[in-house]
Amino acid sequence: MYKRQDLCDLLSLKWHHETDSRRSKEGFPDLVIAGPEGVAFAELKSEKGRATAAQTEWIAALCPHVYAAFWRPSDWPMVYNCLYELAGKTPPPHFEPR
């Protein structure tokens, strides 16, 4: 199965994953992805991970203007479709994530 960033590369999307958030504004989303059809901001969480108040505020502030969400491993089918949409492409018809 592709990792998010691998699929971004495959689809020629630009992305940045902040690996050390100590130098970022508190709560800023982990992943920013840009493509011909728009921009997405994602805060990456484990299945049981909890969002901080600052993370929730960032996602809420971004939502009216761009795609912004919390992504968990179980969200992979939605993430997959979102990345294809940002790239302006149609996902393969019989995709079934593992």
Brief overview:
α2 (53-62) links the parallel β3 and β4. Helix content is 30%, strand content 21%. The protein is α+β, with helices and mostly antiparallel strands.
> Which of globular, elongated, flat, extended, rod-shaped describes the shape?
globular
In which range does the helix fraction lie? Answer: 25-40%
Distance between the termini: 7 Å
Q: What string, H for helix and E for strand, traces the elements in order?
A: HEEEHEH
Number of DSSP strand runs: 4
Q: State the low-pLDDT regions, or none.
A: none
Q: Please, what is the average pLDDT?
A: 90
Rg on CA atoms, Å: 13 Å
Q: Kindly name the structural category.
A: alpha+beta
Largest sheet: 4 strands, mixed
Order of strands across the widest beta sheet?
1-2-3-4
Assess the beta-strand content as a share of residues. 15-25%
Please report the number of helical segments. Answer: 3
